[in-house]
Design a protein that fits this description.
Number of domains: 1
Shape: globular
Structural class: alpha/beta
Helix content: 40-55%
Number of helices: 13
Oligomer: single chain
Strand order of the largest sheet: 1-10-6-2-5-3-4
Strand content: 5-15%
CATH class: Alpha Beta
CATH architecture: 3-Layer(aba) Sandwich
Order of helices and strands: HHHEEHEHHEHEHHEEHHEEEHH
Distance between the termini: 13 Å
Number of strands: 10
């Protein structure tokens, strides 16, 4: 099946999937499109996950051919900080693929939260109700700590808007932009860091520029707490700015690899240097991403 055939089949599956998910219980329209509630960890709904997971795994399996390796490296119980590189704009295909396989391995009853940028988390969109029920909350250390307090692994993307909107030809780069908050969070809460490395999401559209200078000139960085105003190209409308007016992601193959957990104090001593820890964690992730990139034969095809 070629890329065009996969796009058509994926679109057809998405339509059927949306109808079936609705029957499974997305709730009323306000709940569906109103954005996340932000700090409501109780939006996580294991019964809903159990009902919808088989269909969603099938949908993402057909469309993105998702492959997640190394899930056994995630501690089988208790909190941990899963630190991932992020790709694909606001549509977070890599996060969807990973979450489906996490719940398939550990079961819908294991609490799991993913931290999303304010803009992605609060923007009204058709999947908001689904995201909320699968454990997505607004990115903040407070939400992470609350989730740790409930024994949950937490997935964070330190690169945020800077990384997820990088040009497509930089898809093989870890670009956290020097953001070291995840190291300080892991140290303060005494949880291990589990690196999550993915590739393929930056091929779901042609990302041209981040638009950081334009965002500053227009004051977008102050208004929306986002430092980019990216331009991308993708179906059905062609050019998008900040993923608006909207696009259908191309059926790029998403591959995710989970690395063994890192106990920062065990590796770096009782008083770890955050700068050194940051460089070593991101360096390890870059080496894995280099290998994943070498495995790919062509963009989108994988």
């Amino acid at each position: 099946m070629g890329a065009t055939d996969r796009l058509i089949e994926g679109a057809r599956t998405s339509i059927y999937g949306a109808l079936e998910i609705g029957r499974a219980g997305l709730g009323d329209l306000a709940s569906l499109t109103g954005g996340l509630r932000g700090n409501d960890l109780d939006g996580w709904d294991p019964e809903y996950i159990e009902r919808t997971l088989p269909l969603l795994r099938r949908l993402f399996g057909i469309y993105f051919r998702g492959e997640v390796r190394g899930l056994e490296n995630i501690p089988s119980n208790g909190p941990s900080l899963l630190v991932g590189n992020h790709s694909g704009g606001l549509l977070i295909a890599d996060s969807f693929v990973f979450a489906m396989e996490f719940y398939a391995r550990f079961g819908p009853q294991r609490r799991f939260h993913q931290l999303a940028h304010n803009l992605a988390a609060q923007m009204p969109m058709p999947t908001s109700g689904l995201l909320r029920r699968y454990g997505v909350v607004v990115a903040s250390h407070e939400n992470a700590r609350a989730a740790f307090g409930r024994g949950a692994p937490v997935l964070v993307y330190p690169g945020g808007d800077h990384e997820t909107f990088r040009p497509s030809w930089e898809s093989d780069q870890i670009e956290f932009g020097g953001r070291r908050g995840f190291v300080k969070l892991a140290l303060s809460e005494g949880v291990p860091i589990v690196p999550i490395v993915s590739i393929g999401g930056q091929e779901t559209a042609l990302f041209l520029i981040r638009g950081e200078r334009l965002a500053r000139l227009l004051g977008i960085d102050r208004l929306l707490r986002i430092k980019v105003l990216p331009i991308s190209v993708g179906p059905p409308l062609g050019v998008n700015v900040l993923d608006l007016p909207g696009r259908l992601p191309l059926p790029a193959k998403i591959t995710v690899e989970v690395r063994p957990p890192i106990d920062l104090r065990e590796r770096f001593g009782p008083e770890p240097d955050p700068d050194r820890a940051y460089e070593e964690v991101t360096g390890e992730m870059q080496r894995v991403l280099d290998r994943l990139s070498e495995e790919r034969t062509a963009p989108v095809v994988g």
